[in-house]
Amino acid sequence: MRNFKMPVEFVRDAVAGNNETLRNDSHHQTNSTAHKKAFPVLSFNYDHVRKPFEISLWILLALLMKLGFHIIPTVSNVVPESCLLIFVGLLVGGFIKAIGEEAPILDSKLFFLYLLPPIILDAGYFLPIRAFTENMGTILVFAVVGTLWNAFFIGGTMYGVCQIRGAELASVDLLSCLLFGSIISAVDPVAVLAVFEEIHINELLHILVFGESLLNDAVTVVLYHLFEEFSHAGTVTVVDALLGVVCFFVVSLGGILVGAIYGLLGAFTSRFTSHTRVIEPLFVFLYSYMAYLSAEVFHLSGIMSLIACGVMMRPYVEANISHKSYTTVKYFLKMWSSVSETLIFIFLGVSTVAGPHAWNWTFVISTVILCLVSRVLGVLGLTYIINKFRIVKLTPKDQFIVAYGGLRGAIAFSLGFLLTNSKMKYMFLTAIITVIFFTVYVQGMTIRPLVELLAVKRKKENKGSINEEIHTQFLDHLLTGIECICGHYGHHHWKDKLNRFNKTYVKKWLIAGERSTEPQLISFYNKMEMKQAMMLVESGNAAKLPTIVSSVSMQNIQPRGPARRRAIPSISKSREEEIRKILRGNLQKTRQRLRSYSRHDLFIDPFEDNVSEVRFRRQRVEMERRMSHYLTVPANRQETTPVRKVCFEPEHQVYTYDDSESPRGPTVQPNPIPPDAVSLLSESPQRPNQSGAQRAKVPDEQEEQDQLKLSRCLSDPGPNKEEEGDGSFRS
Amino acid sequence: MGASQTRSEHKYQDLADKTGFSLEQITNLHKRFQQLSGNEDTLSRQNLDNIPALANNPIRNQIIEAFFDKRNQHQDEVGSFNEIGFEQFLMVMSHFRPPTLKTTEEEKEALRKEKLRFLFNMHDTDNDGTITLVEYRKVVEELLSKSGAIEQETAKAIADAAMLEVASTNVPDMAPDDFYEGITFEHFEQILKGLEMESRMHIRFLDVDTTTMRCGKSTS
């Protein structure tokens, strides 16, 4: 408005010949007729930023709450985070209501379009594929049949309950009950994740409950739309029922197809991102989100689409993107899903306080009871059938956890919110909220002590053993072979066929460069190496590595050549003694010097010029190592000048080792054995190519070097010896 | 007719008790055996070599050898056969039976040991009771053999790392002078403890006729 006035004023002033206003050509020209207001140094304009400000404030509040819980350890051990967050939401909602403002409710659009996708994508992208596919049959049975059973049982029984006189529920007809049943029947992935994350049960149970919560989305979507249509139409025909079944297949398979297409597109795109690494993570996120939205356009199952996209994309994208991008993807997904989850629970609490409620004792209580009953019955019944087909049977303990882990959450609430029939909407919503509270609070809080009480198997520590990987692959091939011999095409056969198809055709298209031909074992090995190297470099300042450190080294496993390592053929005993004495004498001094160094210093060699350069080189060297954390023996020299340091061995035998530039130098670090015991062998073990004869020679050189070294100052880098062809180290 | 049928059932009953298969499974496997051996009584390496689907398997030689390995017959013999009969065939197959609901914990342990023993025998080709580094390297090389041109060094590196892992887990306090001879059976068991072999190493034996080579998932 102001700006518009100005030209007019200007003209007027010009016409009026008002010099003062003419002189003043600032944009904030005030009314020329009034007194000139002072230039506003500080002004308040909240409306301008209201929306983003409030959103940011909410998110900040949610995260501060999350922070707070973890600072108070006692509370977070007993009560799962979701409960606390809902409680906070209640408080906030109460507060907002108290001050008379309108509380924001968990709008369905907000929930389904913004809050839910990050959580599902996080879950789908990091889904443990092996466990998921091995238990696919069980998961599908629970998801589809179980949810159907729940929906109809609850719906039907509720209708019966509503017919009871005196409950004032006569207006609720069968279709509405069934609709209600379909909303409340589905196990919620957000709630399950929130609770199960904290109890660390074994992978099988986790994947069963979680997989079920993901896959039942298709069923829920179909049932919900089906019953909503029907309740408007009023009657149901057989054709409608059949169409419903067809719809289910369309929704689920269509969703998966959409997701898979986007996943492949994403994988294909990632093939070309080697020059623009910075935007790589965005492709992952955007393609997945587009998959979700596209599926939602056609009323297909968005969740299944998202899962399919993540699963499809992951192996190829991970082979293509840089390590940094991978970390970015991982952390962003975790971050967003964490924020989403927090917000969902808080909003749930706020909505509880805000929303209009219609409390009906009979309805609510019977809903809660029926949910529990139907869940237990469903799980028991289905497990009985499933166990006939499973190899690893589900024990009663497992069944209990699966039944008890059937939590309801925000999806049910949002679906309820979408209902258009306002008469019963509020009653339904109240019941839904009560069930959610019950499952999250009662079941969520008690599941942890129950898991401990029943001694359910916990998640085993995944140490990434290369032996296990080798044998997993070996087993795969073995079983495929036996199946061939047996003559039937079991699922190993098909898995093998899929793998081969993947290797021959798909990988060539979707993975850039030579990595497309890299066998899985080698990728795994490289990944492990990288991880070890990173861990070592990072923990260079820490006291010790979390992994097993033993004194076993390469020399212990190498087959002995004809000449033993210690053979020093041409030096007599007395000479040996002499050498030892001299060395010992000089070493005493350095040992004292060494002792004063901290672990940190040993890494950063004072003899080196450029510390960061050393670190960088060391990192590179780490990655080229073959044997990582198992080795205590560093040895081979690198192309860069080595610096020698000397260490004492308890038996007063002297060895030298090269710091920093040797491939194994830094491995000395984390070894809890005192540095004294560190020994190096520049001899053969790391060079299996050498023949035994050469090995005999080396000890001679070693001793010579020792002597030579004595004459020099210890800080002098030794000559560059025996350069190892590093190409062979690279795997 | 009736007499010969009861006789064959009796014969199979013997085998069923020994190997743990059901009579129906044995009948099906027998039909398959006949098909593979060209209706003869014994199976040779050539017969198994000729299976087309096996051609793509990187460890086919080891698998075929395992059938002819006397150690897998559980009769404390060593060496290998040139040809095997149906009973030996079944014995080898019996290593791939899954545990049932009725298997007790001890039986599961025994089953796991048996399967691990089978795997161990596949690796330990010279039958000295340990898997040496050379043998383990061969295993990894074979595993990677069908994956295109892999550098020799890579396979060696992986095998060495694996060996080191076994050694560090089982004998963590080795002095620098000691030599780790090879993976013994106990160490082998230890290192593969987490894989739950008794439930992983199995195939689903169709309880229907497999000789028609029907595709599709098994239903048993």
UniProtKB/TrEMBL annotation, chain A:
Entry-linked NCBIfam families: b_cpa1
Q: Compositionally biased, Polar residues: which spans?
A: 681-693
Q: What Gene Ontology terms for biological process does this UniProt record contain?
A: regulation of intracellular pH; sodium ion import across plasma membrane
The record's annotation in InterPro entries points to: Cation/H_exchanger_CPA1, Cation/H_exchanger_TM, NaH_exchanger, NHE-1-like, NHE_CaM-bd
Protein family (similarity comment): Belongs to the monovalent cation:proton antiporter 1 (CPA1) transporter (TC 2.A.36) family.
Recorded hits in Gene3D superfamilies, A to Z, give:
6.10.140.1330, 6.10.250.1040, 6.10.250.2020
What is the name attached to this protein's record? Answer: Sodium/hydrogen exchanger
The family database entries (Pfam families) matched by this protein are listed as:
Na_H_Exchanger (PF00999), NEXCaM_BD (PF16644)
GO cellular component annotations, sorted alphabetically? Answer: basolateral plasma membrane
- Per the database record, which ranges form the Sodium/hydrogen exchanger regulatory region domain? 549-636
Point to the regions of Basic and acidic residues compositional bias. 719-731
Q: How does it sit in the membrane?
A: Multi-pass membrane protein
The protein's organism comes out as Dicentrarchus labrax
Q: Major place of localization?
A: membrane
Give its localization: Basolateral cell membrane
